[in-house]
Amino acid sequence: GENVEQHPSTLSVQEGDSAVIKCTYSDSASNYFPWYKQELGKRPQLIIDIRSNVGEKKDQRIAVTLNKTAKHFSLHITETQPEDSAVYFCAASNGNNRLAFGKGNQVVVIP
Amino acid sequence: KAGVTQTPRYLIKTRGQQVTLSCSPISGHRSVSWYQQTPGQGLQFLFEYFSETQRNKGNFPGRFSGRQFSNSRSEMNVSTLELGDSALYLCASSPATENEQFFGPGTRLTVL
To answer: For residue B51, what is the DSSP state?
Structure first.
């Protein structure tokens, strides 16, 4: 089955700086890559996703890039704010609604 | 539209008991997936139901089962509970042919 790895496990950034989280996946048939943000005690929330026919997608301060050849995709958060502090999960799916998740990254934005 | 809802939000059971969790998807969503979240293993896929049929199943023992009703509401059942079943159980709903999954608040199960 699909195996998704996430690095680094914890990321601390100064407010206003950028944060980048990278994930790798193993199944070349995967074609859908969402990112979820989970705050303490809350549900995972879909923040952005990308499909395999697109290399980059942007939504305000958040962007995701996909490199199918290298089988990795990354989340970029610019101008970080304290409310960006959370655990971020990447996931991959081959279109069957079965998401394989990475172990998550704790992002801490230091005011 | 109202979001995904799950009941109950918290459960405390003892080893050997069984438990049933419920999930109501977003109106119009026909796919419901279940995930187990633990600090050690992260988010792991349990199974997915679409139009009352299980389409996908993860690598969990047969003690974990589920079903979906004609109104797309879904239940999952865990029999003969073990201490290791303590986790946050999340369901997610999705439109019929898309992959975007929207999560419910989860049911926190504690097995003593």
So the answer is: T
Q: Are A100 and A91 spatial neighbours (Cβ–Cβ below 8 Å)?
A: yes
Per-residue pLDDT tens digits for B62-85: 999 999 999 999 999 999 999 999
Do A49 and B99 make contact, defined as CB atoms within 8 angstroms?
Answer: yes
β-sheet bridge partners, residue A73: A23, A66
Which residue of A97, A101, A103, A106 is the best one to mutate when testing the B interface, meaning the one whose CB has the most B CBs within 10 A? A97
In this structure, are residues A109 and A11 in contact, taking their beta carbons and an 8 Å threshold? no
Which band of pLDDT confidence, cut at 50, 70 and 90, is reported for residue B2?
confident
pLDDT tens readout for residues A6-55: 977 899 999 999 999 999 999 999 999 999 999 999 999 999 999 988 89
8 Å CB contact between B108 and B11: yes
Q: Are A32 and A75 in contact (CB under 8 A)?
A: no
Q: Is B28 left (phi over 0), alpha (psi -120 to 50) or beta?
A: left
CA distance to partner chain B, nearest, from residue A30 (Å)? 12
